[in-house]
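Progress narrative, work stream C.
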Amino acid sequence: MDRLWLKRRIYILSGLTILLFLLQIIGSLFPVHLLQYGIIPRSSEGLFGIFISPFIHGSWSHLFSNLLLFLYLAFY
């Protein structure tokens, strides 16, 4: 049972990591401004950003620093 739990966790974390990298690649290669989907204060349109903003990063270093901590904390 413990091995199955670990396997599922690795699959979920791998999928999220790939998704984060793909979003960063799209944001880097194409003229898509993903930051516009972040949290916009004092507007009802910005509420959607609460759910989207964890997947948007301003730079590669921002992505790597968040991803390192995310993967570390995911196993504890």
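Work stream C, second folded protein:
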Amino acid sequence: MGRREGGKVGTYEAVSELPAGCLPAIVVVKLTCFVDHYVVVLEVGEGCLIIGDPLGGRQRWTAAEFEERWRRALIYLKSNGK
């Protein structure tokens, strides 16, 4: 299929330093105290992210908001050029 999968665990910096071609990426975030939720990181900018949320649509989160909600799990696919 010409793709490699991978994952990351860590901080906003780990997400902002993903190699080219790794976005969009799926992340697990805290929806409520006991409920996790999947959203998609569409873009990473200077101190902010553009998130695609199936429940809330396209949103802009600050790095601080992302750090607070993110469960430290990220899934991405990267084209290997094939």
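The mean pLDDT is 86. No further action is required on this item.
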